Amino acid sequence: MSLLVPFAFFIFVNLLGAMMPGPDFAIVTRYGLTGSRYAAIRAAAGIAAALFIHVSYCLLGIAVVLQNSPWLFSSIQIAGALYLAYLGIRLLRTSGAASSGDEKGRPLRLNPFREGFLTNLLNPKASLFLLSLFAEFIDSSTPLWSKVCYGLLVPATAFGWFSFLSIMLTHRRFLPHLQRYQVFFMKAMGLMLLVLSALVLISVAMHALGDF
After folding, report:
1. Domain that holds residue 25
2. Global pTM?
């Protein structure tokens, strides 16, 4: 049971990141509201495919840092915690529903998978978030199988969430409720990210004090 706890918490935090308003959320929402459910799910699959690429180089980078510069890893943890806090503050400042359309009025592309893939792949915030996330859950004692599981959970969680979002957005019964409570959910997620950031900073500080 104890082995499942960090994975469950990892999925939870990763899910919060996927649920944040951003390019990925916007592209799936656009297809969900102006296209078909199938198109929105294809866009979700493209996002998940791009995340495989982000995960690969992020895990490799974390491994190199752990092996060569433990102090740099602690710095990455602190920077990651501060970034999570920044994301939390942004969510707490949410005051309205995210836009679901193209702000320039351009038509949707004809290949949802490609658009979802490129949207995530070319988003630098995706790699920054993953580096922050992995730095909090992976250390020098983490076995290879566990790292692989963490890596696979990222695209799996994203695809699961965006597929669920696609279904909800194309279902007339649920859409009004999602819009009504969207701000509340965003603020709750923001508070959770702030709590996580504080816990990470406390953990790093206690570890540093223990080395003296």
Report:
1. 4-210
2. 0.69
Domain count along the chain: 1
How confident is the model over 44-58, as pLDDT tens digits? 999 999 999 989 988
Read off the pLDDT of residues 5-21 as tens digits, 9 standing for 90 and up. 788 888 988 888 888 77
Please give, one letter per residue, the 3-state secondary structure of the chain.
CCCHHHHHHHHHHHHHHHHCCCHHHHHHHHHHHHCCHHHHHHHHHHHHHHHHHHHHHHHHHHHHHHHHCHHHHHHHHHHHHHHHHHHHHHHHCCCCCCCCCCCCCCCCCCCHHHHHHHHHHCCHHHHHHHHHHHHHHCCCCCCHHHHHHHHHHHHHHHHHHHHHHHHHHCCCCCHHHHHHHHHHHHHHHHHHHHHHHHHHHHHHHHHHHHCC
